[in-house]
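ok trying again, last paste got cut off:
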Amino acid sequence: MTKKDLIELIAKKASLTNKAARESVDAFIMAVRDSLKKGEKVVITGFGTFSLRKRASRTGRNPKTGAKITIPARKAPGFTAGKTLKKAVK
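nice, full thing came through this time. structure:
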């Protein structure tokens, strides 16, 4: 499912215009992004949790030259499915 498909589905299920559904989806995505930027978790009961995961620095290899390089530590977004979502997909 693409973002466009999601917008069309929301518009149909919630009796909204495509423009209103698109604005709703965009607002949701921006809210999750902004919360993660602040270091906060986003918990949607019955669906799942969006959170930041810390990745430690590590040694890697440049595939072209074979030289060892240090890959710096960073934060990465993560998603953990909730109990209800896991049950529905099972």
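cool. The beta strands are 42-44, 48-55, 58-61, 68-71, 74-81. Residues 1-39 form one domain.
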